[in-house]
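Subject: sequence -> structure tokens, single chain

Hey, anyone have a minute? Need the predicted structure for the following. Not urgent.
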Amino acid sequence: MSANDASDAVSVANVPSEIRDQLATWLENEKSSQPKQEILPTDGQTVLTYAMDDEGIITLESLEKALKALNSSMEAEHFAEQACAEGELLQAGVNCWKRA
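Reply:
Had a minute. Here:
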């Protein structure tokens, strides 16, 4: 049981019995109407793994896609700069890197 499920169960248990079924139905409808997003870690290693192609190349475009897929608001250029500064990426061309 998740924290949200437990919270919903407590909410339903704490309302008068006359409206308990209505609240339970409403809570279930709210859950099903919300899009489910997989929660993924957004650490640097995960971003690099998502962005890397079969040949080990990471491009600015692949970084943008990886950051977007991981729901990160970080700019791809900033991420690449930080990863280079930390020694995680090595420049392989214009807007193109390899993992160190």
